[in-house]
Design goal:
Layout lengths: L8 H28 L3 H4 L2 H21 L10 H46 L30
């Protein structure tokens, strides 16, 4: 018969943190998959879940720290699992961050290109008038101001 080792508060906090890390990694991977498929609207549904899990993750880290930190649980399997899941989490987070930055850059370039084209189309003609001076600026009759949202 196997004797059961008492589970300390720090040990249970680590197990909770492992499960939370797995869940957060899964949500980030799902969001990144939607971004890879160029479906950012579907990826938006993960923002609230991600924020909630991140806040809980921070809370769990703080609680673990108040219970003596990782050193309090020793060098057991739970610690190895936490390290392994944390590495996976960081890889997923980096991949997600790179995808979001790429999408942000593309969006900003699109907004800039649209703005440049609107300015080019609305620029006054560069020509001389009858008295050999530059002709006055004219606003096109169909001029409409454009507002662009730069949020990605």
């Amino acid at each position: 018969m196997q004797t059961q080792i008492p589970v300390t508060d720090a040990h249970s906090a680590v197990l909770s943190l492992v499960e939370l890390t797995k869940e957060l990694t899964s949500v980030i991977d799902q969001e990144t998959d939607y971004l890879d498929q160029r479906r950012p609207r579907e990826a938006e549904k993960f923002h609230q879940i991600k924020a909630t899990l991140a806040a809980t993750y921070q809370k769990e880290l703080n609680e673990l720290g108040s219970r003596g930190g990782i050193q309090a649980i020793g060098k057991g399997e739970a610690l190895r699992t936490l390290k392994q899941e944390t590495r996976k989490f960081h890889v997923a987070l980096e991949r997600n961050s790179q995808k979001l930055m790429a999408m942000k850059t593309v969006s900003e370039n699109i907004v800039q290109t649209i703005g440049d084209e609107i300015n080019r189309m609305n620029a006054p003609a560069q020509n001389y008038g009858a008295n050999a001076q530059m002709a006055g600026t004219k606003t096109p009759k169909n001029y409409k101001p454009v507002t662009l949202n730069k949020t990605v």
